[in-house]
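User: Run a structure prediction on this.
Assistant: Running it now.
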Amino acid sequence: MLHGKGDRRRTVGIDPGACEVIRLWIERRRRLGFGPEVPLFCTLQGRPMKQSYMKHLLPRLAQQARIGKRVHAHGLRHTHAYELMMEGVEIPIIQRQLGHVSLATTSVYLNHIAPRQVIETMRNAIGRRDHFGGSVPTFRLASDSEAQLCSQLPGSGKEGHEDTDHGVHQLG
């Protein structure tokens, strides 16, 4: 049971690997002398984890692990949603796991994550022929500059806004 945003409580699922990590942490907490009054997820001093603590901890851990990309707590939520999607978990289940009230919010998470996955799926769909014997169009990701230029075209609905995540172009 989690206590999340908007003072809402929800039940979430965790996999066996995460259960093992939590079991190990509980053992370490006991050795540190933390009792049941201390929150499950706390600092090594037994204090509750605050947002500012995590904001500084995650980049430091990423640097130690030699991860070059920016690492932040919200990014972990996106990664979790993506992994669930790649494992074939249905979107309403992902919605509940993330605690989203609206399915539209979950869709936003999933729609911007893997444009390359969409392109690869479309490339592999139906062979290379459509139902009428013609060729299926080939797609590629647009470069950042192409996507920015296309987003400024009249009728794009995004005049003056950069949107590189959805820059997909038909090649032929």
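Residues 136-141, 145-172 have pLDDT under 50 and may be disordered.
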